[in-house]
Design goal:
Helix content: over 70%
Number of domains: 2
Number of helices: 7
Shape: flat
Mean pLDDT: 86
Distance between the termini: 87 Å
Low-confidence stretches: none
Oligomer: single chain
Length: 157
Protein backbone atom coordinates (compact mmCIF):
# COMPACT_ATOMS: atom_id res chain seq x y z
CA UNK A 1 0.00 0.00 0.00
CA UNK A 2 1.32 3.43 -0.92
CA UNK A 3 2.03 5.86 1.88
CA UNK A 4 0.68 8.90 0.02
CA UNK A 5 -2.75 7.35 -0.43
CA UNK A 6 -5.35 8.82 1.95
CA UNK A 7 -8.04 6.89 3.72
CA UNK A 8 -11.47 7.44 2.21
CA UNK A 9 -13.78 9.58 4.31
CA UNK A 10 -16.71 7.80 5.87
CA UNK A 11 -18.99 10.81 5.95
CA UNK A 12 -18.96 14.07 4.07
CA UNK A 13 -20.35 16.29 6.81
CA UNK A 14 -20.72 20.01 6.43
CA UNK A 15 -21.35 21.83 9.68
CA UNK A 16 -23.78 24.68 9.24
CA UNK A 17 -22.73 28.05 10.59
CA UNK A 18 -24.29 28.87 13.99
CA UNK A 19 -25.17 32.37 12.81
CA UNK A 20 -26.96 30.90 9.81
CA UNK A 21 -29.01 28.65 12.11
CA UNK A 22 -29.90 31.56 14.40
CA UNK A 23 -30.90 33.71 11.43
CA UNK A 24 -33.03 30.91 9.97
CA UNK A 25 -34.82 30.41 13.29
CA UNK A 26 -35.51 34.13 13.51
CA UNK A 27 -36.93 34.17 9.98
CA UNK A 28 -39.13 31.20 10.87
CA UNK A 29 -40.42 33.04 13.91
CA UNK A 30 -41.45 36.24 12.11
CA UNK A 31 -42.18 34.98 8.60
CA UNK A 32 -45.95 34.38 8.72
CA UNK A 33 -46.83 37.57 10.59
CA UNK A 34 -44.46 39.62 8.45
CA UNK A 35 -46.00 38.32 5.23
CA UNK A 36 -49.56 38.81 6.53
CA UNK A 37 -48.89 42.40 7.58
CA UNK A 38 -46.78 43.47 4.59
CA UNK A 39 -48.33 41.74 1.60
CA UNK A 40 -48.28 44.79 -0.69
CA UNK A 41 -44.76 45.78 0.37
CA UNK A 42 -43.47 42.28 -0.36
CA UNK A 43 -45.28 42.11 -3.72
CA UNK A 44 -43.43 45.26 -4.74
CA UNK A 45 -40.06 44.24 -3.30
CA UNK A 46 -37.39 43.40 -5.90
CA UNK A 47 -39.16 41.44 -8.66
CA UNK A 48 -41.99 40.53 -6.25
CA UNK A 49 -39.80 37.79 -4.80
CA UNK A 50 -40.45 37.25 -1.08
CA UNK A 51 -37.33 35.10 -0.92
CA UNK A 52 -35.14 38.09 -1.74
CA UNK A 53 -36.68 40.12 1.09
CA UNK A 54 -36.08 37.31 3.59
CA UNK A 55 -32.53 36.80 2.28
CA UNK A 56 -31.87 40.48 2.95
CA UNK A 57 -33.35 40.15 6.46
CA UNK A 58 -31.23 37.06 7.14
CA UNK A 59 -28.04 38.75 5.96
CA UNK A 60 -28.74 41.83 8.08
CA UNK A 61 -29.61 39.61 11.07
CA UNK A 62 -26.20 37.97 10.84
CA UNK A 63 -24.50 41.33 10.44
CA UNK A 64 -26.28 43.25 13.20
CA UNK A 65 -27.55 40.68 15.71
CA UNK A 66 -24.82 38.04 15.47
CA UNK A 67 -21.82 40.25 14.75
CA UNK A 68 -22.73 43.71 16.13
CA UNK A 69 -24.65 42.44 19.18
CA UNK A 70 -28.06 44.03 18.61
CA UNK A 71 -30.95 42.62 20.64
CA UNK A 72 -33.31 40.49 18.61
CA UNK A 73 -36.18 42.68 19.85
CA UNK A 74 -34.47 45.80 18.48
CA UNK A 75 -33.84 44.10 15.14
CA UNK A 76 -37.43 42.86 14.88
CA UNK A 77 -38.87 46.29 15.68
CA UNK A 78 -36.63 47.92 13.11
CA UNK A 79 -37.78 45.42 10.45
CA UNK A 80 -41.41 46.36 11.13
CA UNK A 81 -40.72 50.07 10.79
CA UNK A 82 -38.58 49.65 7.66
CA UNK A 83 -41.42 47.69 6.03
CA UNK A 84 -43.96 50.31 7.15
CA UNK A 85 -41.83 53.03 5.54
CA UNK A 86 -41.42 50.87 2.40
CA UNK A 87 -37.61 51.04 2.50
CA UNK A 88 -35.15 48.43 1.30
CA UNK A 89 -34.02 45.76 3.78
CA UNK A 90 -30.34 46.50 3.27
CA UNK A 91 -27.49 47.18 5.73
CA UNK A 92 -27.36 50.96 5.22
CA UNK A 93 -31.08 51.29 6.00
CA UNK A 94 -30.74 49.02 9.05
CA UNK A 95 -27.82 51.09 10.27
CA UNK A 96 -29.77 54.32 9.84
CA UNK A 97 -32.83 52.96 11.65
CA UNK A 98 -30.58 51.40 14.30
CA UNK A 99 -29.15 54.82 15.14
CA UNK A 100 -32.66 56.27 15.30
CA UNK A 101 -33.68 53.39 17.57
CA UNK A 102 -30.72 54.04 19.88
CA UNK A 103 -31.72 57.71 20.05
CA UNK A 104 -35.23 56.67 21.13
CA UNK A 105 -36.87 58.07 18.00
CA UNK A 106 -38.59 54.82 16.99
CA UNK A 107 -39.98 53.63 20.33
CA UNK A 108 -43.60 54.72 19.84
CA UNK A 109 -43.67 53.71 16.20
CA UNK A 110 -42.34 50.23 17.00
CA UNK A 111 -44.88 49.81 19.80
CA UNK A 112 -47.71 50.73 17.41
CA UNK A 113 -46.43 48.30 14.77
CA UNK A 114 -46.14 45.47 17.30
CA UNK A 115 -49.71 46.15 18.47
CA UNK A 116 -50.87 46.00 14.84
CA UNK A 117 -49.06 42.69 14.34
CA UNK A 118 -50.55 41.27 17.56
CA UNK A 119 -54.09 42.38 16.62
CA UNK A 120 -53.77 40.82 13.18
CA UNK A 121 -52.46 37.59 14.72
CA UNK A 122 -55.38 37.49 17.19
CA UNK A 123 -57.91 38.09 14.38
CA UNK A 124 -56.33 35.31 12.34
CA UNK A 125 -56.48 32.92 15.32
CA UNK A 126 -60.13 33.83 16.00
CA UNK A 127 -61.05 33.20 12.36
CA UNK A 128 -59.25 29.88 12.49
CA UNK A 129 -61.15 28.90 15.66
CA UNK A 130 -64.47 29.94 14.09
CA UNK A 131 -63.69 27.95 10.94
CA UNK A 132 -62.77 24.91 13.01
CA UNK A 133 -65.91 25.24 15.14
CA UNK A 134 -68.23 25.64 12.15
CA UNK A 135 -66.53 22.68 10.44
CA UNK A 136 -67.13 20.52 13.52
CA UNK A 137 -70.74 21.69 13.72
CA UNK A 138 -71.24 20.91 10.04
CA UNK A 139 -69.76 17.43 10.50
CA UNK A 140 -72.16 16.82 13.37
CA UNK A 141 -75.15 18.03 11.33
CA UNK A 142 -74.05 15.87 8.40
CA UNK A 143 -73.80 12.84 10.69
CA UNK A 144 -77.27 13.48 12.13
CA UNK A 145 -78.76 13.95 8.66
CA UNK A 146 -77.03 10.84 7.33
CA UNK A 147 -78.24 8.65 10.18
CA UNK A 148 -81.70 10.19 10.40
CA UNK A 149 -81.22 11.23 14.00
CA UNK A 150 -81.00 7.57 15.07
CA UNK A 151 -77.93 8.20 17.22
CA UNK A 152 -79.85 10.64 19.39
CA UNK A 153 -82.80 8.24 19.77
CA UNK A 154 -80.54 5.25 20.52
CA UNK A 155 -78.75 7.07 23.33
CA UNK A 156 -82.09 7.78 25.05
CA UNK A 157 -82.85 4.05 25.48
Amino acid sequence: MKKDKKMPTLFNVEIEDKDEIRASKFIGKIKDDFIDNNEIYLKNYIDADVGIAFKHIKDCYKKYVCEAGWDEEKFEGIIYVIAKHRKMLIPSVFLNYGMRYDDGKLTKEIELEKKKYNLNRQRKEELHKEDKKSKEEQELLDYIAKHGGRWFNETKK
